[in-house]
Specification:
Two copies of one chain form a homodimer. By secondary structure, the first copy, chain A, is of the alpha+beta class. Chain A contains eleven helices and five strands; from the N terminus they run ααβααβαααβαββααα. Chain A folds into two domains: 180 residues, NADH Oxidase, CATH 3.40.109; 41 residues, no CATH class. Chain A starts with a helix and ends in a 6-residue tail after the last helix. Chains A, B: It comes from Salipaludibacillus neizhouensis.
Chain lengths: 250, 250
Amino acid sequence: MLNDTIKTILSHRSIRKFTDESLSDEQIKLLVESAQMASTSSFIQAYTIIGVEDHSKKTKLSELAGNQPYVETNGHFFVFCADLYRHRVGSELEETNVEDSLESTEKFMVSLIDASLAAQNAAIAAESMGLGICYIGGLRNDITKVSELLNLPDYVIPLFGLAVGVPATKSDQKPRLPIENVYYKDAYPSNKDTVTEGLHHYNDIISDYYHKRTSGKRSDRWTEQVSQMLSQPSRPDMKDFVNKKGFMKS
Amino acid sequence: MLNDTIKTILSHRSIRKFTDESLSDEQIKLLVESAQMASTSSFIQAYTIIGVEDHSKKTKLSELAGNQPYVETNGHFFVFCADLYRHRVGSELEETNVEDSLESTEKFMVSLIDASLAAQNAAIAAESMGLGICYIGGLRNDITKVSELLNLPDYVIPLFGLAVGVPATKSDQKPRLPIENVYYKDAYPSNKDTVTEGLHHYNDIISDYYHKRTSGKRSDRWTEQVSQMLSQPSRPDMKDFVNKKGFMKS
């Protein structure tokens, strides 16, 4: 049952160092076409992909994302954007008022989901070609400047980058949540203890993973890492930015 | 270059009629494991998957989704949920305050993106096994009732369903936006005419597609279909629901 596609999916690890070998135009086209074949809500196709080739722009994006060198050095750098501008322009052709709909929370969700499904198709397609990938959420660190750099109009916002290229390092797979803590039959557990016990179990797995990799120097718990990350709200300007761009007003 | 994975991706069509042959436990496990191997923002794993097997629940979900029979009759029905509850419980173990972060627009986006990347991995894995899939955004038609039916606590919201099963019909692939209208180099086009011309071109393609399929009876434009859909805001209660569940307050 483990066909090549599933083997590719199960072998995923994020790659944070690429050679500078560029993807061919044919490869880029195949990745975009793969992205486009993902499901899309009511055929709305609510995303745009920017391929950043200009080197100074890549350097700038790398800085804006918190100095991540793999944003600058890779085989190709994609930025996936939620896009309802196309629909705004289309509505003018049809002389139809669509603002209320475009500005709803529902359509914000639709555009995020659409763009993410498309991106993951591109990611799997790239990995199936032997390339490595890394998602770059860090583009949201300074989302206003990223948006300006890419000339994004209203009703378009950058969501994340996808760096693709020939891997220059191999990285490990960290153990995911045990399946019984992420997949439930018929309903969410009604007893909070079920969730707590699952977290203790997962903490043991993650601590053990770090312990073995660092010869006992580290033994982080997952809840410790995640709680520390969440103790400071990041990107507090997000709602303002999203609203200013026309999304999620109602 | 067209390996089996890319062939699978490019052959996608949504399947809206399945046989009643159930997926095996092994298949379900493989799909969930595939979902879990998707990238996740800072290893946050902000989603939960509910596998609905109880037949009366499937019937109810089918009704709530607008009487879609393929929600009831399929090989397996998954509901993908944004989940930050696990992190809320984890933060109690660590005696850390994470509410401000959990309730931010940024983390709402992270959980939607995380859940969607995971879902698309499951979708591709299923299709690589010869199964068909259909995303069910219709679960958001009455998201409060779906949430209650699945016993979802605060900080967990259902995003969409994924029906998987043995296809009982074959469906067509509708032509996507031409690549030059969805993929831009270095920046979004500064001239609105570029977008407008692209839409006219795409309208011709879509009209032609319907014309040929219906022996001339239909010739819908894409902008016509999309504008009509968007002329009435759907799911106007979404923001309230999302806020009540603890998401996107700031």
